[in-house]
Design a protein that fits this description.
The protein has about 270 residues and is mainly α. About 60% of the residues lie in helices and about 0% in strands. It contains twelve helices and no strands. Helix 9 packs antiparallel against helix 10. The two termini are about 30 Å apart.
Length: about 270
């Protein structure tokens, strides 16, 4: 069933011009917007707790060793979440720890728990752009699109050129079937962050859903380069190659996607 056409009249929020399940996605373009909760694979390897906190500029003392900054294995997520819970309990005003805990819940697919963290952070910091954006991302995964829009409107009012908010808006627009708006926002992000694989992936998907297949293939090839361990850009790129009659190239992409998917399934089992 396609997106509700009433959604398509919504005015743009920005100013741009521009994993419980690891099953392979349906053939690109075969259905409407993605189902909620489908984006965790695109985030790449799970970051460590220290990376999440260091990004906030408030990494706890004694955590800045090389081992702590290594990518976090999925089977270590429960331990990291418990450690962050203890940190939040002992340091209730530590915004970085609270956001990191929400991010870890999100990477575990626990979006309701993530929202609890972000809503608490928002109560304490209602004008923080990153907090607003984190809330919007979690709300998008929960398919609470109107609430996500409200958070992003406020974030973009405070910081119209914030890349994180613009990326979140692009993904939200894609999920709602607003592909032209999504492509404009994501192009804005890609131009300013040429190493942002997630932005390239969703931009390529937006172009694909809009029927701009040649452009989609070019953008999705870059997404596959930037996200070498994510099966989704490889799978969609295979579909786009199939459309052009490039059977050998398509076969390579499909095979790569299946191999990556098998690895994800093994890690999550």
């Amino acid at each position: 069933m396609g997106p509700d056409t009433s959604e398509k009249t919504e005015p743009p929020l920005g100013t741009g011009t521009g994993t419980p399940s690891h099953r392979l996605p349906e053939p690109a373009g075969a259905h409407g917007p993605e189902a909620p909760g489908a984006d965790r694979a695109a985030a790449g390897p799970t970051e460590s707790t220290s990376e999440a906190l260091e990004a906030q500029g408030t990494l706890p003392d004694g955590q800045k060793d090389a081992r702590a900054r290594e990518p976090l294995d999925l089977d270590r997520l429960p331990q990291e979440i418990e450690r962050l819970k203890r940190l939040v309990h002992t340091q209730p005003e530590n915004l970085a720890a609270l956001l990191a805990l929400g991010m870890m819940h999100g990477r575990s697919g626990e979006y309701d728990a993530a929202m609890e963290c972000f809503e608490l952070a928002l109560e304490r910091h209602p004008a923080d752009v990153q907090v607003l954006t984190r809330c919007a991302v979690a709300l998008t995964e929960l398919a609470r699109y109107e609430e996500a829009s409200d958070r992003l409107r406020e974030a973009l009012r405070l910081a119209p050129d914030d890349p994180g908010a613009r990326l979140a808006l692009g993904v939200l627009s894609f999920r709602r079937g607003l592909y032209s708006q999504a492509e404009g926002e994501l192009t804005w992000v890609c131009l300013r962050q040429p190493d942002n694989g997630r932005a390239f992936y969703y931009r390529g998907e937006a172009l694909n859903r809009a029927g701009r297949y040649e452009e989609a293939a070019e953008v999705m090839a870059e997404a596959a380069r930037l996200l070498p361990d994510d099966p989704r850009p490889h799978y969609t790129l295979g579909h786009l190659y199939d459309r052009r009659g490039l059977r050998e190239e398509a076969s390579v992409m499909y095979r790569r996607a299946r191999d990556l998917q098998a690895r994800l399934d093994a890690e999550s089992s």
